[in-house]
Amino acid sequence: MNRYPLWKYLLIAFTIILGIIYTLPNLFGETPAVQVSTNRQSIVINDQTQARVAEALQTAKIPTDGMFIVDNSLKIRFKDTETQLKARDVVENALGEGYITALNLLADSPTWMAKINANPMFLGLDLRGGVHFTMQVDMEAAIQKTFERYSGDIRRELRRQKIRSGTIRRTQNSLTVPFREAADLEKALPKLRDFFPEATLTPQGNNLVLTLSQQLLDQVRSDALKQNITTLHNRVNELGVAEPVIQQSGSERIVVQLPGVQDTAKAKDIIGRTATLEVRMVSDDVSLIQAALVGNVPDGYDLLYTAGEMPQPTLVNKQVELTGDNINDAQPGFDEQGAPSVNINLDSTGGSIFADLTSQNVGKRMAMVLIDQGKAEVVTAPVIRSAITGGRVQISGSMSTAEANDTSLLLRAGSLAAPMEIIEERTIGPSLGKENIEKGFNSTLWGFAVVALFMVFYYRLMGVFSTIALSTNILFLLAILSALQATLTLPGIAALALTLGMAIDSNVLINERIREELNDGIPPQQAINIGYQNAWATIVDSNITSLIAGIALLIFGSGPVRGFAVVHCLGILTSMYSSVVVSRALVNLWYGRRRKLQQISIGTVWKPANKAAGQE
Amino acid sequence: MELFKMKRDIPFMSYGKITTFISLVTFIAAVFFLVAKGLNFSVEFTGGTVMEVQYEQSADINAMREKLDTLQLGDVQVQALGTNRHIMIRLPNKEGVAASQLSNSVMNLLRQDRSDVSLRQVEFIGPQVGDELVTGGMLALSMVIIGIIIYLSVRFEWRFAVSAIIANMHDVVIILGFFAFFQWEFSLTVLAGILAVLGYSVNESVVVFDRIRENFRKPTMRNKTVPQIIDNAITSTMSRTVITHGSTEAMVLSMLVFGGAALHGFSLALTIGIVFGIYSSVLVASPMLLMFGLSRENLAKPQKQKEEAVV
């Protein structure tokens, strides 16, 4: 009765081998590496890139331990961190613009393992050090911006149609456009309906009300989040971080994790930037400027200062004609006078807005306003000499080459669709990370040793089987976590330890049941069988209740709670398999074939004979 | 070797009144401390900034305090973590101060005095995050409770489900009572530990319940009274209870001893939870069954023996 068919043994052996293969990559160390990737779709990392890098490294006499391309990024291994640092500079110089060169650590496991996706687990920031940010996106600002865009479009369209209107006002989810006469409204309505098919336009007296549907506003919100994520990606890339995590968390939050980053001030500086460019008209009305300078800034205007060492006051219209959203590309360069400049390429909408603006305002000044870290500065305020068509704009003025570089980088990296605020930040030093790993594993190890010793001492051979089953449980758990490419965190290690402590429960249940049966005078073979059978229902019940708790943690928990829950849930599943199937297989293999089994090594001293005298 | 050679069943149920009394007293004490002292919530819940810095030579905490007071942030706490080389600094959230830049300014300030200071970790949590964690935590707690009640009601009977949950809540409240009494820091990992205790302690009750159900169906137990049946169930699972808890406790204690500061709260919650888990599953859940009037008929309908298919 205690025999498994051959296929069952083979299946178990197969799972154990799989477990070993997928756990192994964690045991190999890591080598320093340089990772080359790109955030531009026009640039592809291919053999040609590899050849260029190889050549550059050869010229610089830097030896590599091999390079390969995965997922459109080139990874190059090096002997030590010193070579790695040297190599990064060489590679960066060799490739130039458009590439991101980052320091990285690569798993040292053999290539055939990587080929079957047997990779080591990711270590969480608490185990390797790094920075974690949670950013909250200001959705109201995104909505506000959308309405501003709509009112700008309405104004432009009405101007084109030569219809006069009053100041457009925003209420909750709508814009109100006042007209002087009903006739104007009637003339405007069909044109605007054609122009804004997605909005609802309703006349109210002499006013026209434009309402945006909830669905559209939700779309705006989700687009804002997406754009901010993209922008953050671009900015983080400037930091040269390997494997950064930038992902949505909830409906208005973004989580950014930068493993291994030490300089948090710089990281914060770069990702926290909210650089946007706005084109606004300048007022050169002397009386208005004078009023503004004594503190009475006229309605509809802002008094801004120019960037540079000698800030000049400039009175600019509040109305934004064009924003950085319409920028395709920005590059630093030099103007005809040889002064540093930023050359901007606008998209088609931006180009046509800009052409309209410049053709209508020849002789007037327009200001390029850069808003960075909540501060608005006039980069330059040139006089419009002629209409600029074609969407190519050059900004030059009082800026240095470095400023031109920075400005173009920020513009290129894209503006944020809505401002963000850091609402959570964690920094873990690398030494603390190492300590955490060490302590976590040590505690698991010692706990395991104590449990194993006790089991063997208390249950003898059956205890040995239980301990082996428990070891396979760790193996399966680590293998599954590695195969899923889960991120191991400190709470994950805690869950690992706790799960092991709890996993022995099933074996204790089984062993105790077997002992009980033996005490009742049941023959050994049958006792094993009944023991496993009776324990099974209890094991299922108790594990499922634990699993319910684990799943609830997984669904409703956040951060460390979730990290704990993932490992806990998986551990419960693997422990059921290992404590029931694997340990049974061992017992069957050992005892199953013996017909006349007299005794099981389970540490009992109560013989059936003694027992008969002992009870009832 | 055998630890337990129980010849007779221990009459646990006859101690019912005493154990219920003890539970009630500890429970009320725990609730009292929770109300009177409250929990010492970590920065994850309250919001604020916690920094841990490391000095190469021991630091002067008072000097640090004075220095940090110049930032005018309000209630700044500076305390040593074990040695005077590891210092923990807590800063409250302050309106109008860009909290995310705060750690930088603190570090700059500390560097002015001593160049051998290095940052080990920073945690900044904005005020809006904490509330969500509380809501999430409460939601998780109630989902665990509801889930377990449903599962136990289906597998056993409502009396079992309710008793198990009451016994569990008893454990949870007592752990919280400990945290309130000693003013240990209540962090997210502690919450994880407590929720794990919930699953763990139910586990414990289930093993006893399972045996009770089995005993009711055993022909040899036909003429036993309900308390006798429960006593027998507890007695015969006693060795397993002690061994299992012993091994889990060994693991958890190992975490408490070797795990360092990061795992401290978690393992502390579990250490207490396991001790009370044994007690409550045996001496709270089972008398509760009697109180709810468990009888043989409740479990009389024979269920089919094969239940394997569940996994």
UniProtKB/TrEMBL annotation, chain A:
Residues 419-590 form the Protein export membrane protein SecD/SecF C-terminal domain. SUPFAM superfamilies: Multidrug efflux transporter AcrB transmembrane domain. Residues 1-103 form the SecD export protein N-terminal TM domain. The chain crosses the membrane at residues 6-24, 444-462, 474-504, 563-587. It is a multi-pass membrane protein. Residues 225-283 form the Protein translocase subunit SecDF P1 domain. GO terms for molecular function: protein-transporting ATPase activity. InterPro entries: SecD (IPR005791), SecD-TM (IPR027398), SecD/SecF_arch_bac (IPR022813), SecD/SecF_CS (IPR022646), SecD_1st (IPR048631), SecD_SecF_C (IPR048634), SecD_SecF_C_bact (IPR055344), SecDF_P1_head (IPR054384). One of its GO terms (biological process) is protein targeting. One of its GO terms (cellular component) is plasma membrane. It is found in: Cell membrane. Keywords: Cell inner membrane, Cell membrane, Membrane, Protein transport, Translocation, Transmembrane, Transmembrane helix, Transport. Residues 309-418 form the SecDF P1 head subdomain domain. Part of the Sec protein translocase complex. Interacts with the SecYEG preprotein conducting channel. SecDF uses the proton motive force (PMF) to complete protein translocation after the ATP-dependent function of SecA. Forms a complex with SecF. Part of the essential Sec protein translocation apparatus which comprises SecA, SecYEG and auxiliary proteins SecDF-YajC and YidC. Belongs to the SecD/SecF family. SecD subfamily. PANTHER family: PROTEIN TRANSLOCASE SUBUNIT SECD, PROTEIN-EXPORT MEMBRANE PROTEIN SEC. This is Protein translocase subunit SecD. It comes from Neisseria zalophi.
UniProtKB/TrEMBL annotation, chain B:
The keyword Calcium does not apply. It is found in: Cell membrane. Residues 108-292 form the Protein export membrane protein SecD/SecF C-terminal domain. GO terms for biological process: intracellular protein transmembrane transport; protein targeting; protein transport by the Sec complex. Keywords: Cell membrane, Membrane, Protein transport, Translocation, Transmembrane, Transmembrane helix, Transport. It holds the Pfam family Sec_GG. GO terms for molecular function: protein-transporting ATPase activity. The keyword Oxidoreductase does not apply. It is a multi-pass membrane protein. InterPro entries: SecD/SecF_arch_bac, SecD/SecF_bac, SecD/SecF_CS, SecD_SecF_C, SecD_SecF_C_bact, SecF_bac. One of its GO terms (cellular component) is plasma membrane. The chain crosses the membrane at residues 12-36, 133-154, 161-182, 188-209, 250-270, 276-294. Its main location: membrane. Belongs to the SecD/SecF family. SecF subfamily. Part of the Sec protein translocase complex. Interacts with the SecYEG preprotein conducting channel. SecDF uses the proton motive force (PMF) to complete protein translocation after the ATP-dependent function of SecA. Forms a complex with SecD. Part of the essential Sec protein translocation apparatus which comprises SecA, SecYEG and auxiliary proteins SecDF-YajC and YidC. This is Protein-export membrane protein SecF. It comes from Neisseria zalophi. The lineage of its organism: Bacteria, Pseudomonadati, Pseudomonadota, Betaproteobacteria, Neisseriales.
